[in-house]
Amino acid sequence: QVQPVESGGGLVQAGGSLRLSCAASGRTLNNYVMGWFRQAPGKEREIVASISRSGGNTYYADSVKGRFTISRDNTKNTVYLQMNSLKPEDTAVYYCVVSGVYPPIAATLTRPSDYPYWGQGTQVTVSS
């Protein structure tokens, strides 16, 4: 069983930055794709970013390209989301996700159904 645990959320002014971290226990995570989803009040859950097993490939939603950076440290079983130039529309609960085991080495994954393991979520609030 894999259990992701997020940290680093909070309240920030528009234009500011936050860094989310996710430590996942239970397995060696270099065999899994990892990512971040978010869900704002009254909206559907959406993919934010995904990173391949080695970290060599990444995917970003159009709404965050150029502002957010996903990275991973497989030696620490941890994935990060650096969020810069934050906007009020980035306000949401952010979820760390871990895929099923042994996806293709270069794959990034974008569907909620690709990720059987979800963290509890961390709130990010961006004030205008």
Give the number of helices: 0
Portion of residues in beta strands equals over 45%
Low-confidence segments, ≥5 residues, pLDDT <50? none
The rounded distance between the terminal residues' Cα atoms is 40 Å
Average pLDDT level: 94
Given helix and strand content, the structural type is: mainly beta
Q: Whole-number radius of gyration? A: 14 Å
Tertiary shape: globular
Strand elements, count: 11
The biggest beta sheet reads: 7 strands, mixed
- Helical proportion? under 10%
SSE topology sketch:
Layout: E1 3-7, E2 10-13, E3 18-25, E4 34-39, E5 46-51, E6 58-60, E7 68-73, E8 78-83, E9 92-98, E10 117-118, E11 122-127
Parallel strand pairs: 2-11
Antiparallel strand pairs: 1-3, 3-8, 4-5, 4-9, 5-6, 7-8, 9-10, 9-11
Question: How does this structure look, described?
Answer:
- Strand 5 and strand 6 form a beta hairpin.
- The protein contains no helices and eleven strands.
- The mean pLDDT is 94.
- Strands 2, 4, 5, 6, 9, 10 and 11 form a seven-stranded mixed β-sheet that branches. The protein has a four-stranded antiparallel β-sheet with strand order 1-3-8-7, with no helix packed on it.
- It is an all-beta fold.
Which properties best describe this structure?
single chain; 128 residues; mainly beta; seven-stranded mixed β-sheet
Summarize this entry quickly:
The protein is 0% helix and 46% strand. With 128 residues, it is mainly β.
